[in-house]
Write a structure and sequence with these properties.
Radius of gyration: 16 Å
Structural class: alpha+beta
Order of helices and strands: HEEEH
Oligomer: single chain
Strand order of the largest sheet: 1-2-3
Number of strands: 3
Number of helices: 2
C-alpha cells in the first residue's frame, strides 16, 4: 500500500497506542514502538514514549480558528 511505502521511505515505525492527553492545545500520545512486531513484548517491559502533536484545525480561515491558533 502507498501508506506503508511512505512510512518505510520516511523511516517511520509502528506504535501501540496507550493513551492520549490534551495539554495546552497539543495532543500527547503515549506509545510503545513495535519494531516490526504486531504486539508489544511483555518482558522485558517496553519503553513508553511520548509523541507531541499540534491540534489540527479543520477550517483555518474562520475567526474562531484564528483565535484558537493564538492560544
Amino acid at each position: 500500500s502507498n501508506l506503508k511505502q511512505e512510512a518505510e521511505k520516511n523511516n517511520l515505525g509502528s506504535y501501540w497506542l496507550l493513551g492520549i492527553n490534551d495539554f495546552n492545545g497539543k495532543f500527547q500520545l503515549r506509545v510503545i514502538e513495535l519494531r516490526g512486531q504486531s504486539f508489544p513484548d511483555r518482558f522485558p517491559w517496553p519503553l513508553v514514549s511520548i509523541i507531541s502533536l499540534p491540534l489540527a484545525l479543520y477550517q483555518t480561515d474562520t475567526e474562531k480558528s484564528q483565535l484558537e491558533v493564538l492560544i
